[in-house]
From TrEMBL:
This is Formin-binding protein 1-like. Belongs to the FNBP1 family. Residues 130-174, 404-438 form a coiled coil. Residues 538-599 form the SH3 domain. Residues 476-490 have a biased composition (Basic and acidic residues). GO terms for molecular function: GTPase binding; lipid binding. It comes from Rhinolophus ferrumequinum (Greater horseshoe bat). It holds the Pfam family FCH. Residues 476-539 are annotated as: Disordered. It is found in: Cell membrane; Cytoplasm, Cell cortex; Cytoplasm, Cytoskeleton; Cytoplasmic vesicle.
């Protein structure tokens, strides 16, 4: 089936059909464009919706914590990703379908115009040949009629007896002329007719079929292009279906992650104060004074005054029991004794070291008088620094449970910053080694200021961690020490020296921990145990010094680069390792300054 053979006489119809095809192509392109606009507007509205309901938090305290809130925000994130996929669909349609359609429509118009111009030229040439043939035909016909008239005139004069010989001869010449002209026009007409027939055959069997074939191929390509665009239109949507499915699955997982029990526990953790509920209010018998007055008859002035004082005191006590719902009354100070300086009870019955303003003044007076009641000034200094720290820095204005939580969060943040600084120091050391091996790459000395700054940051962060751990230990009722964790015993010393000191580090020996005395008598010996010497600990490995360490602070051990030491206690997370020389000298060295090698089963040897 070919348009050239089947539709040889339908040039105008093919012209209209090809124009309709291009119009339909452009109409579909307009449809795709509107679909793209819909997708873009839909994605934009989804993003605005997500932005509207996303939390506008300025600090970490406002971050969502409840599982229902976290699930909702996860759904918003998935919806934002879903909006992104709608944008991908719009971009794919715009690039693969709409843009391709517009370029193809432009090329199609140009090609169609060229083919139609060729067809019109062929038709015009055929019409020209037809006109030439028709003119020669008409001229031949006219000359033939003139020749017939000349012949009739000659025959009439030849048969007329009255006609002169000259007239007859003239008519004969005219007949010969007309006959000659008719023969010439006849030959010309034959030639034009033959030429026209050839051009007409060529036009309808060669030229027009070729042009119509090109138009047919063009129209078929247009149809194929539409088919490809239909497929691309669907593929643009189908490509994002897996990702959209993942977004929907993420929404389902977010819904499944909601835990009502966990949310309830978070409410408890957020608002728990740590205080014990108030006890029962005791019965205050105000009638005792009346009954005593009636029974005694007369009361001296001193007894009356005493009774009034007792009544006032009783009323004050009764009011003090309702401190949870009003202003908390100031507790009456107990008699000033050395035991009241250091002993405080927790709800579970344990005792820990606390200080107040009056006991501290008492301790200072005792130190000045030289009475051996305070075990060490270092313990006093530690308690003073823990208790009298900044109100906002140590969160002392918060309830115990909330204070513990805030301190733990700050310690975690400081540990993360410490890890970053440690990684940066390791990277700088590696870069320094590369520069030392390849001087053309850089100057190793240029890294020294940055390395020193990093070391200072590490020391500062470690001091901050120790300080916050001390406050956390105070909140947890473990100010005197813990067996599984060490921290500095002198926070003020850490701040002034600019480098952490392990002099107050905790050891595994529970006898060395500073604790409050369980009784008022005999507290001197328990506090003096802090300064008693322990038996030498067995070596659990060895280490090699990577950098020299001066060890100026108390409790540290100086070492030289390349020196080998015994490890007797691992790093507990504070950045210090306990080591011993071969001569028996012990102390703490920075863990980052040594290369540690631990030996298996070395503690039992």
């Amino acid at each position: 089936m070919s348009w050239g053979t089947e539709l040889w006489d339908q040039f105008d119809s093919l012209d209209k059909h090809t124009q309709w095809g291009i119009d339909f192509l452009e109409r579909y392109a307009k449809f795709v464009k509107e679909r793209i606009e819909i997708e873009q507007n839909y994605a934009k509205q989804l993003r605005n919706l997500v932005k509207k309901y996303c939390p506008k938090r300025s600090s970490k305290d406002e971050e969502p914590r409840f599982t229902s809130c976290i699930a909702f925000f996860n759904i918003l994130n998935e919806l934002n990703d879903y909006a992104g996929q709608r944008e991908v669909v719009a971009e794919e349609m715009a690039h693969r379908v709409y843009g391709e359609l517009m370029r193809y429509a432009h090329d199609l118009k140009t090609e169609r115009k060229m083919h139609l111009q060729e067809g019109r030229k062929a038709q015009q040439y055929l019409e020209m040949c037809w006109k030439q043939m028709d003119n020669s035909k008409k001229k031949f016909e006219r000359e033939c009629r003139e020749a017939e008239k000349a012949q009739q005139s000659y025959e009439r004069l030849d048969n007329d007896t009255n006609a002169t010989k000259a007239d007859v001869e003239k008519a004969k010449q005219q007949l010969n002329l007309r006959t000659h002209m008719a023969d010439e026009n006849k030959n010309e007409y034959a030639a034009q007719l033959q030429n026209f027939n050839g051009e007409q055959h060529k036009h309808f069997y060669v030229v027009i079929p070729q042009i119509y074939k090109q138009l047919q191929e063009m129209d078929e390509r247009r149809t194929v292009k539409l088919s490809e665009c239909y497929r691309g239109f669907a593929d643009s949507e189908r490509k994002v279906i897996p990702i959209i499915s993942k977004c929907l699955e993420g929404m389902i997982l977010a819904a499944k992650s909601v835990d009502e029990r966990r949310d309830s526990q978070m409410v408890v953790d957020s608002f728990k104060s740590g205080f014990e509920p108030p006890g029962d209010c005791p019965f205050e018998d105000y009638s005792q004074h009346i009954y005593r007055t009636i029974s005694d008859g007369t009361i001296s002035a001193s007894k009356q005054e005493s009774g009034k004082m007792d009544a006032k005191t009783t009323v004050g006590k009764a009011k003090g029991k309702l401190w949870l719902f009003g202003k908390k009354p100031k507790p009456q100070s107990p008699p000033l004794t050395p035991t009241s300086l250091f002993t405080s009870s927790t709800p579970n019955g344990s005792q820990f070291l606390t200080f107040s303003i009056e006991p501290v003044h008492y301790c200072m007076n005792e130190i000045k008088t030289g009475k051996p009641r305070i075990p060490s000034f270092r313990s006093l200094k530690r308690g003073w620094s823990v208790k009298m720290g900044p109100a906002l820095e140590d969160f002392s204005h918060l309830p115990p449970e909330q204070r513990r939580k805030k301190l733990q969060q700050r310690i975690d943040e400081l540990n993360r910053e410490l890890q970053k600084e440690s990684d940066q120091k390791e990277a700088l050391n590696k870069m320094k080694d590369v520069y030392e091996k390849n001087p053309q790459m850089g100057d190793p000395g240029s890294l020294q200021p940055k390395l020193a700054e990093t070391m200072n940051n590490i020391d500062r962060l470690r001091m901050e961690i120790h300080k916050n751990e001390a406050w956390l230990s105070e909140v947890e009722g473990k100010t005197g020490g813990r067996g599984d964790r060490r921290h500095s015993s002198d926070i003020n010393h850490l701040v002034t020296q600019g480098r952490e000191s392990p002099e107050g580090s905790y050891t595994d020996d529970a006898n060395q921990e500073v604790r409050g005395p369980p009784q008022q008598h005999g507290h001197h010996s328990e506090f003096d145990d802090e300064f008693e010497d322990d038996d030498p600990l067995p070596a659990i490995g060895h280490c090699k010094a990577i950098y020299p360490f001066d060890g100026h602070n108390e409790g540290t051990l100086a070492m030289k680069e390349g020196e080998v030491l015994y490890i007797i206690e691992e790093d507990k997370g504070d950045g210090w390792t306990r080591a011993r020389r071969q001569n028996g000298e012990e102390g703490y060295v920075p863990t980052s300054y040594i290369d540690v090698t631990l030996e298996k089963n070395s503690k039992g040897s």
